[in-house]
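Lab meeting minutes (informal)
Scribe: AK
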Amino acid sequence: MIHHILLATDGSDTALKATRWAAELAKTYGANVTVLHVVHIPVALAGSTVLPGGATDVAVVTRLMEQAAEGVLTVTTPLLEDAGVPYETCIEYGHTAETIVRVANQSGADLIVMGSRGLTDASALLLGSVSHKVLHAIHDKPVLIVR
């Protein structure tokens, strides 16, 4: 059965839909939810913040990304609170799909719930989406992708 749900979220509309699904499943099965947001700072972005005097600072970009991550959790967790579902939050750093898979395996999650970007099959083939990558990287857990 389902005892532990990993909810991967980016705060988007589809991620919030996924949160509602995770909340309902958690209520139904008496499961706990781990809300995961992955901060991915591409190298190109990390050097792009220009400070007075023309200096760049990776720490500034990192702090901005952390603030955005906290904002994602701020819009996500009230949906779980309203449903009366026990949850914990987790912010991780790294490549998004790889980090979701790692956290799912390390935490012992029984189910991964996440939103879809809604890419067409052709676009997903060319670009790949996080949900597509997670779906193909996880071999021992069900993944619910919400559109």
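Next up, CB showed the second protein from the same session:
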Amino acid sequence: MKKILFLCTGNSCRSQMGEGFMRHMAGNKFEVSSAGVEPTEVNPYAIKVMAEAGIDISSHKSKSVNEFLEQEFDYVITVCNHAKQVCPVFPGQYERIHWDIEDPAHAKGSEQEKLAFFRKIRDEIKEKCLEFLNKLNN
């Protein structure tokens, strides 16, 4: 089974959403994980907007990239520039992919404005996951 690691700074939003979508869309084709270079906790807004999309990430935990340094992956997908710049080298051959996605954790405004921004980012990540899977299937 091929392995994918989503990597961002805090492992709180973007990488968690990527992990959730990829697990949902790819079924058992991939073993999917996510991590952060400076892990925090899973953002409640990320949990909420993913639930709206029918994907439960409420049991996800924010993990450090250090937990994965000895593992081999087929794909390492960075979802922010900071993670791209400090991404460690993993053993074995793998493809490094970068998706430059805005951090929804920095959303400002009312509850509805923050949720709208999280939904926008969620939808962008969903599209990128679909594109990734479509490319592999062609």
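CB comment: The mean pLDDT is 94.
No objections, moving on.
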